[in-house]
Design brief:
heterodimer; A: mainly beta; Lipocalin; nine-stranded mixed β-barrel; 28% strand; B: mainly beta; OB fold (Dihydrolipoamide Acetyltransferase, E2P); 2 helices; disordered N terminus
Chain lengths: 252, 139
């Protein structure tokens, strides 16, 4: 595991060492917190989909409510919020575009190439805001470093306007996502385990596990979806239509 | 302009060559991936834009003799650039043959699978999405 002392922590400890009365105070957190900073590209080794706690595939009847199953049977791709350039979690983490992680004291920031959006995971002890005041497509994220170097993240405050995937199932305001971030394979791989719960559309928690390859030889590029999005059926102009039509429904 | 034909393609051969496409931005279910076809014509424009690139191509309808503009959707510049493409990979005025998955609704559009230039150069457009280019994987 790659263990890096953040520069600010090092300077702080150095300053403490020069104080005659108070000797240097090395906390376990300061020297064992892994550094997730880097450019990460989702790996084909990831275990995607809706899995049980042992990462075995579940059938829709095992995890979806009747209402959710009904929604999946009448999906209109043109009405997918993603087709209107709107982001969402946990869908956004699944790629396929790279994610740059910048780790600071008190936060871990994810810069998503896809949609040019960002997400801040606060590790400074703050709590989720009141959802009456702050609801988000990406949810609000707070994290806590565990003793084994895992970053445990709690995501809440979803706005209910996104879909979990192209399957038409909304991420409701009741949705709750838990994530475990862990460096493995000598820090060359980032493992992200997710547990997703939403009592409105799911009858049980579902799990997935993503692996990301460290590719610092890459850089994230710009991606402004609205640049040429012909798939927004509400903005289609005569002459250059996109491929989606409002009446399209996914074939069974 | 080339002989602008619209030809069915051996499904079996293509299925082996080009696995099913996926897209982050929207479902590709509106494309008939079981029945790829070929179209030929002159490039009007290659739009190097997100969330998808677009090839606008003039195709002569064999039945009517009329020129029809087709809109062919491709992967994003972000994906394609990591597979060796750039904004000049396809140029206006070029005559090309495209293999596409046509729109199910019969309108003149589709998703690009492969492009053959006039000199015979073959460009695979059905590249894997931006998963690690060091890995083999789904497209």
């Amino acid at each position: 595991m790659k263990v890096v002392m953040p520069r600010k922590v090092f300077l702080f400890l150095l300053a403490l060492a020069f104080q005659s009365s108070a000797g240097p105070v090395f906390t376990a957190e300061a020297i064992t917190t892994p550094d997730l900073t880097g450019l990460w590209v989702v790996s084909n080794r990831s275990q995607r989909g809706y899995l049980d706690e042992n990462f075995e595939r579940l059938e829709p009847e095992q995890y979806l409510t009747a209402r959710a199953i009904e929604l999946t049977e009448n999906v209109r791709p043109a009405f997918d919020p993603s087709a209107m350039c709107l982001p969402s979690m946990p869908r956004h983490l699944g790629g396929p575009y790279p994610i740059e992680i910048v780790q600071n004291q008190g936060s871990v920031v994810q810069l998503f190439e896809y949609e040019n959006v960002f997400r801040i995971i606060y590790t400074d002890g703050r709590e989720h805001p009141d959802p009456i005041e702050d609801q988000r497509f990406m949810g609000h994220s707070v994290g806590e470093w565990q003793d084994d170097g895992t970053l445990l993240v709690d995501v809440s405050n979803f706005n209910g306007k996104a879909w979990i995937a192209a399957n038409g199932i909304p991420v409701s305001q009741s949705a709750h996502l838990t994530e475990w971030y862990r460096l493995i394979e000598e820090g060359e791989t980032l493992e992200v385990t997710q547990r997703y719960e939403d009592s409105e559309y799911f009858t049980r928690p579902v799990w997935s596990k993503y692996l990301f390859n460290l590719r610092n030889d890459w850089g994230i590029r710009e991606y402004f979806c609205a640049e040429g999005n012909r798939d927004n059926v509400f903005q289609q102009r005569e002459g250059l239509p996109g491929s989606l039509r409002p009446e399209d429904i996914l074939p069974e | 302009m080339n002989n602008l034909a619209k030809l069915p393609v051996s499904l079996f051969a293509l299925a082996l060559m080009f696995p099913v496409s996926t897209s982050a931005h929207h479902s590709f279910e509106m494309f008939d991936r079981g029945n790829p076809i070929q179209i030929s014509g002159e490039i009007k424009e290659f739009q190097w834009v997100n969330p998808h690139t677009w090839i606008q191509i003039y195709v002569i309808d064999e039945m009517t003799g009329n020129q029809v503009e087709w809109s062919i959707e491709g992967r994003s510049p972000n994906v394609l650039v990591r597979r060796g493409w750039n904004r000049n990979t396809v140029l206006p005025g070029e005559n090309v043959m495209l293999t596409i998955y046509p729109l199910r609704n019969g309108e003149p559009g589709g998703a690009i699978v492969m492009l053959v230039k006039e000199d015979g150069t073959i460009i695979n457009a059905d590249t894997p999405t931006a998963v690690d280019t060091n890995e083999e994987g789904p497209r």
